[in-house]
Specification:
The structure is a homodimer. Chain A is of the alpha+beta class. Chain A has helices at 4-8, 23-33, 53-59, 67-70, 83-91, 101-124, 139-146, 175-178, 189-201, 203-211, 217-225, 228-244, and strands at 45-50, 74-81, 128-132, 152-161, 179-181. The first copy, chain A, has a four-stranded antiparallel beta sheet, sandwiched between helices. At the A-B interface, helix 1, helix 2, strand 1, helix 5 and helix 6 of A face helix 1, helix 2, strand 1, helix 5 and helix 6 of B.
Chain lengths: 249, 249
């Protein structure tokens, strides 16, 4: 099988407004995606597929009205789902035990894996996709909009539609930086500089750094895009939401 | 592109002892896999590729000596890696902020996504793969064996090799059970029974339940495979390990 697609792929954040994405297509892709591996074949996840324009508009503020959701023809909210498994256990008179850090971690892993399998299939079918990381920031209003019961937690959102843009492949860190043979190689300071040099030199990144009045790409990440105080605040909110959904870390 | 592979795939736990899997092949697959989407293109993950037989034997007890690792020709430990990113930030005089639940969750998501992209590519190339969920049980001895510094946490392990077995496609829950249109559909008790009926009726599952002296498949999951007390104990150990690695949930 030709696997060239994998190294040419890119996320798409603008979708063709003239072409709908039907529930049949989404279900046919998901029907293949669920064959992805998962912990103990428990499939402790659910996918909420939103194609209704009003419902998408209702979800958009929770994703900070990013362009990807504003033009999306379908929004897939991939959730960790212990509700189904817990109820099955209780109907069988046994107590499930997934309401802890191990359960959460497997749930996140399995949910991410099936989401990625969907993305691969969707992109191979000519759709564009984009993950929305905002899902873990605003899980509570997303859960409310989608009617999620106890035990169900939004993990990742994927927007999709036929591409209305072609941003092209984005660079990645050098492969040697993220792979290690036999044991971990802790890079020297010099190597750290070398690892990020290409991304730091990109015109788009240099412009982004300058527009934000920062000194470096690292500062853009640490102070503008993912500042510590915001991450900590969103961590508190997510932990509290998890607790309300029956999962204590 | 023919996507029939996706619904026919299955995990492989026994590998051909006569066929080696070279580092070149693994690196060529990983070189494609890293083009998977990831949060902010920060790539906060590392993959430790173990092909050395002695090193694999050293890792095996941490995975309870499962057949998949005992016959593996290569073992890939996919780790969340904040070490590289943190050091880059500090070399640029800024303080990173990923040492919390949000950072952990993105890290797990991104690590699982790149692992799954590797598995898809490996299986398309004729290799068999199997995830080892034991990675989050015994992260500390795994980290020690692989020389992981602060900020690096094992998330999933993938064993690989050329298949020496062909277990065939395993059934999944009915698609309607894991997908929801527009909003979440909370199943009735009757639907819960219906959802698990096919898996409960499988000969292999019935035998497994009987051999363990259990009354139901749910009891096998809740009391034998993933008992609450063990999950809670492993949660404490993983949380403590995360803290030692600089991540506080």
């Amino acid at each position: 099988m030709n696997t060239e697609y994998f190294e040419k792929r890119y996320s798409v954040r603008a979708y063709d407004q003239q072409r709908e994405v039907g529930m049949d297509l989404i279900n046919s892709l998901l029907g293949k995606a669920v064959h992805a591996p998962n912990t103990g074949n428990m499939q402790t996840y659910s996918v909420i597929v939103t194609t209704d324009a009003d419902k998408i508009a209702e979800l958009a503020p929770s994703h900070f009205n990013q362009p990807a959701i504003r033009s999306a023809k379908a929004v897939l909210t991939f959730c960790l789902d212990f509700n189904r498994f817990n109820r099955w256990c209780r109907l069988n008179g046994v107590e499930p035990g997934l309401d802890n850090l191990q359960g959460f971690t497997w749930g996140v892993i399995d949910t991410a894996i099936v989401a990625q399998q969907f993305c691969t299939l969707a992109e191979m079918a000519g759709l564009g996709t984009c993950y929305l990381g905002t899902t873990t920031y605003n899980a509570e209003p997303i859960a409310r909009a989608l009617g999620l019961p106890t035990g169900v937690v939004p993990v990742v959102t994927v927007t999709t539609g036929y591409p209305a843009e072609c941003p092209g492949t984005q660079p990645r860190l050098p492969l040697w930086a993220v792979t290690h043979e036999q044991v971990y190689h802790d890079p020297s300071d010099e190597e750290i500089h070398e690892i990020y040099a290409e991304e730091e030199a990109l015109d788009s990144n240099r412009r982004f750094v300058e527009e934000n009045g920062k000194e470096s790409l690292a500062a853009l990440f640490a102070e503008v895009r993912y500042p510590k105080a915001a991450n900590e605040q969103f961590s508190r909110v997510y932990r509290e939401f998890l607790k309300n959904q029956g999962i204590s870390l």
